[in-house]
Amino acid sequence: MTFRILHWASRIILAATFLYSGYVKIQSPLEFAGALAGYKLFPADLIIPVTYYLPWIEVALGASLLVGWKIRYFAAFTIGLLSLFTLILVVTYLRGIDAECGCFGMGGPISPLTIARDGLFLVPAVFLGLEARIRRRWQSQMDFRTEHT
Question: Can you give the residue ranges of every domain in the chain?
Fold first, then answer.
C-alpha cells in the first residue's frame, strides 16, 4: 500500500511539473530563449532549437509519466534530464551570472533556492527508477523478519 501511494505521488508530482514547465515555455518561447541566452552556456545556434524542442520533450515526458508506460525507462530519462538541469543551474550560479532560471517561466533568478528546488525533483524520479529494487529489498526484509519471529 505504501509503495503504491509513493509510486503514484511520484508520478503525479513529476508529470505535473514537466507538463506545466513545458506548457509555460511553449506559451512564451521568446522569454524562454532569453533565459537560455542568459546562462551564457549555449552557442547562439543552439538556443532556438532548444527553445523549440525542449518544451515539447518536457510535455511528452510528463504525459509518459502520467500514463505509466515503461515507467522505469522514463524515470531514468527524468533523472538524467533533472541532473542536467540542476548541473546547468549550479554552473551558472557558481560563475556569478545573474540569469533567470526559466524553469517555470520568467520571474525567478538562479539562486540556491532554485537549485535546491530542482534538485528535490530528483527524489521522486530516483524512487521511480529504483522502485522495483526497493520493493524487493523491503519484501526480503519483511520475509526475514517473519521467518525469525
Answer: 2-147
